[in-house]
Amino acid sequence: MSKARTAPGVFLLVLLSTLAFGQFGGGRRSGGRIPQNFDVSQTEFIFARWQYSSGGGWNHDYPAAEEHINQIMSEATGLNVDRMSYKIVPLESEEIFKYPFGYISEPGQMYLSDTEVKNFREFVDRGGFVMLDDFDNARQFAVMKENMDLVFPDRPIQRLTGDHTILRTFYTIDNLHVESPYDVNAPAEFWGVVDDDGTLLVMICYNNDVGDFWEKIDEPVYKLRPSAEALRLGINFVLYAMTH
Fold first, then answer.
1. Residue 140 to residues 111, 143, 144, 205, Cα–Cα distance (Å)
2. How much is the pTM?
């Protein structure tokens, strides 16, 4: 896997060029029905979006977020990934163990069943990595923490600092430009769950919606710099998951 970095200015130019030539496609819509991707590419990496059974919001930004981050990742890194390398995976299913990276949207609306708690913990114990994204305010944080306490009664969540290794895995992330795409009346924060060796098992993006940046990167909606940082974050998270 290539570890060559792309300079910040070059990354922005690549992003602008990609957008200018219209290589991104808009997300598919299906009148409220969530279409499963049956065209899953047989690549080194599959973006697995976890579907939890109780609560809503697990499908937010799907599938454009997956397609966009996968495409940028395929162009910016040596990882074998394709734009269509993504799939919805029910958390209650043992299928989650097939993919080392799991993505959860709206953990502030998530209420895990006993089976989901068991699968989540087993997934991480087997070496998997989970990204929690798209939630804000104290109530949603409390719901997220309640779920994490069920999954990790022995590993409390902890606030991550701006010098954490995951922010230096491929790109050096500038915390000044990590922010929510919309006003949440508080700064974006990183929280996580780590093992005894300090390896990050779960990345929690609080007061942020990284996936929304991914989804709308081909639309003139959000500022370019934080949008680019959101793409860099996604790439760092995936490469950290694949190498730790």
1. 11, 5, 6, 12
2. 0.89
